[in-house]
Design brief:
single chain; about 375 residues; alpha/beta; eight-stranded mixed β-sheet; six-stranded mixed β-sheet; 13 helices; about 40% helix; elongated
């Protein structure tokens, strides 16, 4: 059931929600949280579809906040709120309210959302795109216990990780971190099968993918070993190779679905490691609403590394940042090839010849003077 409201208020929206529940015969509210999605018109459909799929596991009231851009100065001074209320089959297993904000009300979206929150229920805010620099200080983020961003959609995804680290507040999380949960589980299970010491790690994945950087930082932080980052054509993460005292341990996934786990002394095993869609990622994040201390630790470790090698993190071709060690100095590596000494000798040669000629002419000048 859908109810369209034009130039409305939060009070009218609440009345429409009650009316819709009564019309479908479910007057009771059986939802566990409020999910606020802050997006634009372009990404609203995909975000809402993912939220509806996730609501089958987490029945929730979903509020989609779409900030519309005013076309002229007169439109910017006027405020209007349009809403679309969905209940029943059109809203998954919960309720959905699509809010379109125009004019000055765009700057006060929290005042529109606050009366629509479920009482005594946690609030999660998700920015599929265009997330703020500091989600906790955003007016909508301040209403939530959990704030979800996605650095993969940023213009410079890897550099965005340093901004997330500087502004981290307990309750922040990122879908790029959620994407590597199966990888972390599989690698931890592989290391539980051997009693060896890890000496070095290589993480291989496509360029401009923050999930690859986060996995490299996690391994370097937890294992305290050098971690080498190498590039591939993707999709996403393609391989993790660990050099241990008992031999190599590798987890390769070339096609984005099926991976091969290889441990020295054991036959290779095929493991399912599919690339998950957004609905699965959001459903995983909604399972826990407490602060993610491991994610915070990884971000803190990564800030120092990202600041140490800014040129490599900007995505130069062939760049291979080293999360667990010192950054390579390209100038120092180029010194042996340059061989500056012969060049200096060649530059000084004309001066030496001129000095020799002057020395030969000196006795003749003295004789002429006498």
């Amino acid at each position: 059931m859908k109810i369209d409201l034009t130039d409305t208020t939060a009070g009218e929206i609440n009345k429409a929600l009650v009316k819709g529940r009564r019309a479908i015969g479910t007057p009771a509210v059986g939802m566990v949280l409020t999910l606020v999605i802050v997006t634009d018109e372009e990404n609203a459909y995909d975000s809402l579809k993912a939220a509806n799929d996730a609501s089958r596991e987490h029945p929730s009231r979903t509020l989609v906040v779409i900030k519309r851009v005013s076309r002229g100065p007169r439109d910017r001074t006027s405020s209007r709120l349009d809403a679309e209320v969905r209940v029943g089959a059109d809203a998954g297993t919960g309720e959905t309210v699509v809010l379109r904000l125009y004019g000055e009300v765009v700057e006060h979206a929290d005042s529109v959302v606050l009366p629509l929150l479920l009482p005594d229920a946690p609030v999660v805010v998700w920015w599929p795109v265009n997330s703020p620099q500091d989600p906790a200080k955003d007016p909508l983020g301040a209403l939530a216990q959990r704030r979800v961003t996605d650095t993969y959609t940023a213009e410079q995804p890897v550099r965005e990780l340093s901004a997330r680290a500087e502004a981290y507040t307990p309750g922040d999380t990122d879908l790029s971190w959620t994407r590597i949960t199966p990888w972390r589980s599989m690698l931890a299970a592989a290391l539980d099968q051997i009693t060896c010491e890890v000496k070095a790690v290589e993480v291989e994945g496509e360029e401009f993918n923050p999930s690859c950087e986060l996995l490299a930082m996690w391994l370097a932080d937890r294992l305290d070993v050098p971690v080498r980052r190498s590039l591939s054509s993707g999709p996403g993460l393609t391989a993790v190779r660990m050099d241990t005292t008992c031999g190599p341990v590798a987890l390769d996934r070339a096609d984005g679905s099926l991976a091969t786990l290889s441990i020295e002394g054991q036959p290779p095993r095929a493991v399912a490691l599919n690339r998950r869609d957004t609905a699965e990622l959001i459903a995983e994040e909604l399972r826990r609403l407490d602060p993610d201390d491991i994610y915070a630790s990884v971000l803190r470790y990564g800030v120092e590394r990202l600041h140490t090698v800014p040129e490599q993190q900007s995505g130069g071709a062939g760049a291979e940042p080293v999360p667990g060690g010192e950054a390579a100095d390209p100038v120092a590596e180029a010194e042996p090839v340059a061989e500056p000494e012969p060049v200096e000798e060649a530059a000084k040669a004309p001066a030496k010849k001129a000095a020799a000629k002057t020395a030969k002419k000196a006795p003749a000048r003295k004789a002429a003077a006498k």
